[in-house]
Write a structure and sequence with these properties.
The chain has about 80 residues and is α+β, with helices and mostly antiparallel strands. The chain has one domain: Rossmann fold (3-Layer(aba) Sandwich), CATH 3.40.50. The protein is about 35% helix and about 20% strand. The protein is built from 3 helices and 4 strands. A two-stranded parallel ribbon has the order 1-2. Helix 2 crosses helix 3. The radius of gyration is 12 Å and the shape is globular.
Amino acid sequence: MVLDEPTAHLDPETRAGLTADLLRATRGRATLLITHDLIGLEAVDEIVILDGGRVAERGTHAELAAAGGPYAIARCDRGPTAP
């Protein structure tokens, strides 16, 4: 299943709830979630960060958050709503 920006234009609370619902509904299925919204990605198996059409980083939320690269920087730029 491909989900392209499924939470675009939603308020933060609704985004978080919809993301959790979508991840629960697609558990055990191959799913590609395309998003600029980094909230809720702690639950996905792998995150791939693209920059200029190339893979800049890939790993789990914990790995990327600890690495201090583009993913960690982008989450910090989003302020206190980013877990």
